[in-house]
Amino acid sequence: MKPAQFQYHRPTSAAEAVDLAAELEEAEFMAGNQSLGIVMSNRLATPANIVDLSRVDELDFVEVEADAVRVGALTTHRTIAQSTQLGKHVPMLPAAAEQIAGPSVRNRGTIGGSLGEADPAGNYPAALVALDGDITLRGPDDTRTVAARDFFIAYMFTDMAEEELIESVSIPREPFPPVRTGMAFDELKRAAQTWPTISAGAVVRVDDPDADEPVIEEARLALANAADVPLHVPDAEAAVEGEPLSESTLDEAGEAAREAADPSEEMHADREFKLDVAAEYSRRALETAYDRARGAGGGAA
Fold first, then answer.
1. Residue 50, strand partner residues
2. Scanning 11, 73, 148, 208, which has its CA 20 to 30 A from the CA of 158?
3. Run of H or E residues at 86
4. Which fold has domain 57-172?
5. Which fold has domain 7-52?
């Protein structure tokens, strides 16, 4: 099947892009085109106008600022996966990026396109929720910032107006200094090119990485494909905070993740199996993040 007929537009600035979207009827932004083209080819979407963002170079950047790390919406998965800056300051993002599909998708797919699709199984939504990140949206008249935890409503539904585009994402630096922080992004997949059955992103900050049993001062946990939106699990975070990580606190965190999850059944994973995986991968991600915080490497995988 082929897409329905549409008019193609290729602006060179974000301002031009949002103005076009406001002026045109039934306009849709296209970023890396790793998902929209498939949806259109199956006639599940039939926009009258496509606004291609591929030449809007101002949306392709990685910046480490004093208070936050910012990533432009058109930054590709490959660039994020290979970024030494991100690897040092927010390694969960490169870890999430390098596990997306295969090389052809990573070379063209973008973080903004992935977030705009709002697939609850996507890597970036869960990672940004775990990192308590923000998403900056640009409209014809102004920009606004939405917390990642408030941005996702359901699959392909977000807190974004039709004429708005995703300009960038930002992740605060203050809560998680690399010298005392560990991050992890773990996922269960049937094959490299498939969506994950469950993914878990975890962040842990300890009081003293050189101690034999450092105390967890703060933890974050979010799951992908465990609910209709990326799932923040504050009860699991509370279970491990305030003491060194142990088997009992990990068990409590895993059980909290299981109780919070509300996954949809799939052909290869029924609800009970996905609940078990949500609990297990929450444990794994938190344990890996803790081990990395103790090593003061701040790494993620």
1. 8, 28
2. 11
3. helix 84-89
4. 3.30.465
5. 3.30.43
